[in-house]
Design brief:
Layout: E1 5-14, E2 17-27, E3 32-36, H1 43-50, E4 58-63, E5 66-67, H2 72-78, E6 79-82, H3 94-104, H4 109-122, H5 138-149, E7 156-160, H6 168-183, E8 187-192, H7 195-198, E9 203-208, E10 211-216, H8 218-225, E11 229-236, H9 238-248, E12 253-257, E13 260-265, H10 268-281, E14 285-292, H11 296-311
Parallel strand pairs: 3-8, 3-9, 6-7, 7-8
Antiparallel strand pairs: 1-2, 1-4, 4-5, 9-10, 11-13, 11-14, 12-13
The chain binds adenosine-5'-diphosphate (ADP) and magnesium ion.
Magnesium ion is lined by residues 43-44, 84, 160.
């Protein structure tokens, strides 16, 4: 089957700054693909190129078989986009906002009412049609933005950090909607910096300084990217333990993880006795130290560290 997205050696340069650096990707139809990376990594720039809103410097890409440079109108007709700053009109009502976007997307007038009722029901906003958007909570606004982006029944959906600043319950509701859409065959490219959410994607790519540094299913990434051992240490006081272990430069990485510490190192197992002795010598009480399966966040940190080392000419 033809892929829903194909990106081939794509690059975007702003003057001398390389924002997207030779990335390649492919997505199947109905797939939920997560693009993960810190602020400034190049996620939004990539999406804007894929929608034909920004011209690539080099490389090729197609969405639903349409070329991003020569057929961008067809892409916009068949793709929905919830941008990071999706512009809902606060002074207009829920229904007025929807109707406005349906018009922008050329939904035939006599279909708008029916489509509005259906989509507002699906995103859980039925009954709020006459509410002013400025009065809605953040989660409801994001669900309305999603309904607007779906007005023309797109086969491909771009979601750029759709859950940023949204409470946990609304995030869950949004993800349930994303699953339903994918099950009905919509292909979805979603960016997020919430690692726990990335686990909801079928496949993910880590993007860092414009480059894709890892790609695969969440399970593959955790297995392949952390060549190191990860230990979780429950101890107190946590802040002193963190400082002591970091200052000792014993491990590749020492990170705060909830109310515990995670240490990541290729030889963490062999170093744990010495580490615990060091902590005790600094009056840190160690309750528990055990090896754990790395989380996606551990994988991310480990991968970025080795990318940094490689960039500094010190591959390890
Ligand atoms: N129009 C532009 N001109 C110059 N630099 C830009 C422009 N748009 C984005 N950038 C830069 O490109 C980099 C990637 O930005 P962006 O794609 O928005 O990252 P992300 O969405 O991952 O946070 C950033 O350093 C940003 O400052
Ligand atoms: Mg962005």
């Amino acid at each position: 089957m033809e892929p829903s997205l194909r990106v081939d050696d794509l690059t975007k340069q702003f003057d001398s700054f390389v924002a997207v650096d030779h990335i390649s990707l492919a997505m199947a139809r109905g797939e939920i693909f997560g693009l993960l990376g810190p602020n400034g990594a190049g996620k939004t720039t990539t999406i804007r190129i894929l929608l034909g809103l920004l011209a690539p410097t080099s490389g090729h890409a197609s969405v639903l078989g349409y070329d991003v440079v020569t057929q961008s109108e067809a892409i916009r007709a068949h793709a929905g986009y919830v941008s990071q700053k999706f512009a809902l009109y606060p002074d207009l009502t829920v229904a007025e906002n929807f109707d406005f976007y349906a018009g922008v997307y050329d939904v035939p007038r006599k279909q708008i009412t029916e489509r509005r009722a259906q989509l507002l029901r699906e995103v859980g906003l039925s009954g709020l049609e006459r509410e002013r958007v400025g009065a809605l909570a953040g989660g409801s606004r994001q669900r309305l933005a999603l309904a607007c982006a779906l007005a023309h029944q797109p086969e491909f959906l771009f979601l750029d950090e759709p859950t940023a600043g949204v409470d946990a319950l609304s995030r869950r509701a949004l993800w349930d909607l994303i699953y339903e859409l994918a099950e009905r065959g919509t292909s979805i490219l979603v960016t997020t910096h919430y690692m726990d959410e990335a686990e909801n994607c079928q496949r993910i790519a880590f993007i860092y300084q414009g480059k894709i540094v890892a790609e695969g299913t969440p399970t593959e990434i955790k297995r392949d990217q952390v060549h190191a051992q990860v230990f979780e240490i429950e101890c107190e006081p946590l802040d002193i333990a963190l400082t002591v272990l970091r200052d000792a430069e014993m491990f590749d990485e020492v990170a705060l993880y909830g109310s515990t510490l995670h240490v990541i190192d290729a030889h963490a197992r062999a170093k744990m006795d010495a580490a615990q002795n060091l902590l005790r010598a600094n009056n840190v009480k160690v309750m528990r130290a055990e090896e754990i399966i790395p989380s996606l966040e551990d994988a991310f940190i480990a991968r970025l560290r080795s990318a940094d080392r490689a960039a500094n000419g010190n591959p390890k």
